[in-house]
Amino acid sequence: MKNLFLLFLIFSASAIFAQDQEIIKRDFQTIIKYTSEMKIDDVLNMTYPQLFTVVPKAQMSAMAKGMLSGMGIKMIYEQVPLNLKMTPVKTLSKSSICLSKYNQSMIMEAADSSLLEMLTYAKMKDNIIEKLDANKIRIKGSSYLLAIKDSFTKNTWKYLRYDDENAEANSKILSKEILTAVEKMKTSL
After folding, report:
1. pLDDT digit string (tens) for 30-87?
2. Which of 1, 90, 115, 127 could disulfide-link 141, Cβ–Cβ 3.0 to 4.6 Å?
3. Distances in Å between the alpha carbon of 34 and those of 124, 153, 174?
4. How far is CA 124 from the centre of its chain?
5. Three-state DSSP class for 87?
6. How many CB atoms lie within 10 A of CB 19?
7. Does the pLDDT value for residue 128 go beyond 80?
8. Which residues have CB under 8 Å from 22's CB, separation 6+?
């Protein structure tokens, strides 16, 4: 009887993790769609809420929209194979996490070429910046998205960029346990 109960628990846990993987995959596709359509507020609604303790949500939305309109920057997301890779869901003491790695490519245009010039010299570990002309660059490469389910998300999946450029903000809002686990997960992708 004990063995039957244990087998049932293992099967149930496997089904729950598979269901979580499907939810994360579906949400990932939604985030990509919202990003390519420049639906900033919809992306922010799916973002890990602790990020807004560093920069308030309204301010983040205004900054993103202002950058696009006020600075005359136009971003076009190119259709490239995503090559989506996901780690299994990992249960930690106070949260569950899953890391995804995917390809992306975008073209940025700006009336003021000096804005793009600064980006051309930026160090981005997993991305290549290619100057197309004086007012246009392409940024392509791999990005990471961390799915988190914890008390801050009311046990629903929320998402956070986990690229090197986001390391400082992430270290302020994620527990040491999550940071350590994600670094191990990164090596498996």
Report:
1. 998 898 888 999 999 999 999 999 999 999 898 887 766 666 778 888 888 889 999 9
2. 127
3. 23, 20, 25
4. 15
5. coil
6. 11
7. yes
8. none
Classify residue 88 by its DSSP letter: P
8 pLDDT exceeds 60? no
Amino acid at 148: I
Q: Hey, where are the domains in the chain?
A: 2-186
Q: The pTM is what?
A: 0.82
Count, residues in the chain: 189
Two structure tokens written together for 167? 């390391």
Place of tokens 């007012």: 135
What pLDDT was estimated at residue 69? 63
Q: How far apart are CA 5 and CA 7, in angstroms?
A: 5
In the numeric block, which tokens belong to residue 159? 């998402």
**CATH number, domain 2-186:** 3.10.450.100
- Cα 175 to chain centroid distance, Å, stands at 17
User: What span, in angstroms and rounded, lies between the C-alpha atoms of 119 and 8?
Assistant: 54
Residue 171 and residue 179 in contact, taking contact as beta carbons nearer than 8 Å = yes
> Rounded to whole angstroms, what are the CA distances from 15 to 8, 20, 89, 134?
11, 9, 12, 52
* 3-state DSSP of 146-161: EEEEEHHHCCCCEEEE
